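Q: How do we represent a protein-ligand complex in a form that can be generated token by token?
A: Start from the inputs.
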Amino acid sequence: MLDTQVKNELMTIVDTGRYLDRPEELACYAYDAFVVEALPDAVIFPETTQEVSDIVKIASRYKVPVTCRGAGTSVCGAPIPLRHGIVICFSKMDKIIDVNTRDRYIIVQPGVVNVDVQKALAPFGFFYPPDPGSMNTATIGGNMAMNAGGPRCLKYGVTIDYVLGMEVVLASGDIIRFGSKNIKDVTGYKLSSLFCGSEGTLGIITEAILKVRPLPETVKTLMVTFDDLDNTAKAVTDIIGSGIIPVAMELMDKLTLNTIEDVANLGLDREAQGSLLIEIDGVKEACEREMTLIIEKVKENGAIHVQEAKSEVERERLWTARRSAYGVFAKLAPDIVSEDVTVPVSKVPAMIRKIIEITEKYGLKVGVLAHAGDGNMHPMIPANKADKEEWQRVERAFDEIFQAAAALDGTLSGEHGIGLAKSDYLPLVMNKQTIDFMKKIKQAVDPDGILNPGKFV
Amino acid sequence: MKKKTPQNCGKCGLCLNVCPVYKVLKEEPASPRAKLQLIKAYENDTLSSSPLLKEIMSKCLMCGSCTTNCPSGIDHYSTFMEMRRKMVEDQGETPAIKSLTYLLAREYRLKFGAGLARTGQKFVPDLFARNYKLGNIPLKNFPTLNATPFRKAHDVIIHPDKKPVGKVVYFTGCATNYLYDDTGVATIGILKHMGYEILIPRDQTCCAIPLLFHGAADRASKNITTNINALKGHDVDAIIVDCSTCGEALTNEYPRFIEQQGQNPSEANAIAEKVMNILSFIDQQFDRLEFDPNITEKLSVTYHAPCHTKNNFNAHIIVERLIERLPFVDYKRAVDADECCGGGGTFFYEYPEVSKKMVDKKIENAKAVNASQWLTDCPVCRMNLAGNLDTDDPLKVLHPVTLIYSALKDI
Ligand SMILES: Cc1cc2nc3c(=O)[nH]c(=O)nc-3n(C[C@H](O)[C@H](O)[C@H](O)COP(=O)(O)OP(=O)(O)OC[C@H]3O[C@@H](n4cnc5c(N)ncnc54)[C@H](O)[C@@H]3O)c2cc1C
Ligand code: SF4
Ligand code: SF4
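Then emit the structure tokens for the protein with iron/sulfur cluster bound:
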């Protein structure tokens, strides 16, 4: 419970319906899709920037922790209020403020769901490229705070590549605005890189100007299966190496394919050891040429089955399969750990071999899934946290997977972020001075450490 | 595949934006994910029962969208039903819902209640009726009750219009029996036209779904037994329902319920196998329909897919296809044709402000396509949609069978 004084002050900003603090309600804000949980003392739903600023001013005065939340789809514990305090939930601050396809931008409040941005743009023939697997639920604020990526980011880049401007409420309650509606803008520091990916530890995003793109003329989608996982990975390296940059290149291994098929009955090849879902887009003629080249490359690597999606329905079916991977794995055991170490694409085959070697060593089940074109691995390990012995093996396996990735010039996370899941591993990929530098930034912007405390900085 | 329990929820959140209640309220406690976490906490004794917990559990349309979209295969539907039962056990039920479940539990009470309500309706002063609302629906927009309950007005056995091709049982449900006899008349008319002999067992009663939703398991049990006895052992091609909620009860809930009670589910299973939605039945034998050649003008029609059609029978695709196949129809799909209308059993009554937001959006989008008929195959959706349109609105809400029946050639 918050101090009565603090509560009373907060209640002058929002009405009762936008302030929750009964135990049943708080329990609903203790989790995300990660395994650690912690209860907030209050949940508050602002609708305007001014309200956010007023809330933070109070929190700052009383030094109450503030943790932002979008839809709570983070898989690393980023929105978990580890030190309790206030959760500011943006789900009701969800207006699309301006759609301007002539100048190629859209302005939104942080609680707008990614898919609603796509829906607002589609009638104009435009889209917003970042497409996390959680796009039907996750918010733009959450996407920005996590610098989210998705399958098609291989070609188009991640969230930060689409941020033109932002409005941010600082830990003091001050409101700052930077960037503009211009595609080119080098006025001052590029502050968006500071806040994008800061996981809510540096400032609170209250508005965003996002760059949008015209929808491509043609999209082609291909499902390729292999009887060998190593060859599957090599095909990825070969295709990228030949100079083609597909929109997406999703790798799934046998266990993943079968687990999805068990649930969704989509007609996936159960015998394949590995598969690639490849999508290209652009001008029709260029797509056709690229497609021929891709098919050549996968055949050189021993592809056994190559199937092109004949219709939008078929394409959707293939993507549904890919998108449901995480969820279907969750059904295999009470808990699921999915990390997303990333390596340079030429190291993909080596990394996959490592993942399999390590999980075998610890006697764990693993589904290998990857946004393979950009080297972003998604090994998923179903396990039971309550089983202490098994959980220890899971932790040890991930220790080694992180080390293996670092040794291959890789990094801890390609898109899921650090959150609670990976903060201990930072020294693997950053020296002490670098970590200290991040701490200095945090100190400077949030001297009392009230924003999302207990996380990686 | 065996359905999964709350323990298997990966908390991925993919069910949030398919939940009609979450989409309106935008609060986690309204979401399916939260309900599962709370149920888990309640079962692990880390959260105790409370009026608020009960309220959170009942702020749900029992529409099944979460189950349909959950990649982990969680069976929300049964999990919620069981939790609702426990909540009623712990916390009791509100007087209004109590009297509803009391009425639905016994056919004679329903008849009695219907009689009272009918006289009531006549005597309610106009001004009062205009201003008074039940849930989000103004009283004056409520359907009037059938002059005679449908089953009373019809024979137990009805013969086809032409050479018989088969035999079906018709489970009418409460809505057709008491409120919407036009649906029943059309269903019978179409079946006769197709060449079916129809058996309408006298002693059928409410399917019990409203009772199960409100945790009245003991009352539900009696209804279920009565219906199984009424429906079992007939040598027929199908057991026809005109309401997908009744259909869902007969196909899924009955066998499960019987099994839970430790009884042999073989009779319930045999019934479940024969249950068929009238619209799917028509779609399968579309060639048996002969339309009136004098109808030359096309009617513009739109459709609202009830959640229980969508999520339990997955039949909304079939219904839309059927509507499109009708030669006299110009089908205009509304952008949100398969979104929930917020009616959901007694949801419109318990949470009118949430329900109202949903239905207003539906109406706006349905009007945008300029149709004159708004078809829907669920009586509660019909009551909710029509109830929120002005009585003199040109857009009319009907069960698809009524439209089909009106266009059949006399034979
Ligand atoms: C099935 C599934 C698939 C996924 N696929 C992908 C994927 O393909 N790519 C990917 O990158 N991620 C993926 N994720 C992870 C997750 O969906 C993303 O990180 C997403 O961006 C989180 O958005 P959210 O709205 O749920 O934010 P939350 O989880 O609520 O919060 C995430 C972080 O953002 C902060 N935050 C939220 N709003 C604000 C704000 N307004 N201002 C400041 N900080 C804020 C929170 O404090 C927290 O630290 C997936 C998750 C799931 C469950
Ligand atoms: S979609 Fe299924 S697994 Fe995901 S949060 Fe909802 S119930 Fe849990
Ligand atoms: S049954 Fe419908 S209303 Fe209830 S939680 Fe699931 S999706 Fe939401």
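Residues A 327, 330; B 9-15, 32-33, 36, 70, 72, 74 surround iron/sulfur cluster (ligand 2) (CB under 6 Å). Residues 362 and 393 of chain A are 6 Å apart (CA to CA).
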